[in-house]
Amino acid sequence: MDRIYVMQLVRSFQVGEISRRTFLRRATAAVGSMSAASLLLAACQPISGTPRPVVEATPSGEGVGSTDTNMTTEAGLAAGAVEYPGPDGETLTGYWARPEGDGAYPAVIVLQEWWGLNEHIMDVTRRIAAEGYVALAPDLYKGQVATEPDEA
């Protein structure tokens, strides 16, 4: 369709119906949209010949973080406080939940609101895990929880 449109533009320019400037502007828009559409289609196609990376599940005792002793199991979930090393070697804390049982699960990071890692954020983390994800809510405020906006 764009090819026919460009051919019509060429014909209109040749017979003097449109100016050179109008021709160039319209032809560039048509050809540019064809190029953009071709690039988008090429980017959406799967890469053949290259296998997708497979993430292996690690046993719960060998993971990056170590879970706290108050780990709870409820309704097919394992959830509780977790400690894990930060980039500078410091120990970071958070709350995590995952479906019970072995297997590879996709992961979600749950970011807390200004009032900190409270019961609502822990509940959101558990609800995400109930949908089949490993969910981690890092404690960004290092244990501080605010109840009023002026405390944040």
Mean pLDDT over all positions = 78
Gross CATH architecture of the largest domain:
3-Layer(aba) Sandwich
Q: What is the fold-level CATH name, i.e. the topology of the largest domain? A: Rossmann fold
Alpha-beta classification = alpha+beta
Rg over alpha carbons: 28 Å
CATH class of the largest domain: Alpha Beta
Total number of beta strands: 6
Major sheet size, sense and barrel closure: 6 strands, mixed
Name the helix and strand elements from N-terminus to C-terminus, one letter apiece.
Answer: HHEEEEEHE
The total of helices stands at 3
**Are there runs of 5+ residues with pLDDT below 50, and where?**
57-70
Q: Concise description?
A:
The chain is an alpha+beta fold.
Explain what this protein looks like in three dimensions.
The chain is α+β, with helices and mostly antiparallel strands and 152 residues long. The chain is built from 3 helices and 6 strands. Strands 1, 2, 3, 4, 5 and 6 form a 6-stranded mixed beta sheet that branches. Helix 1 packs antiparallel against helix 2. The longest helix has 25 residues. About 9% of the residues have low confidence.
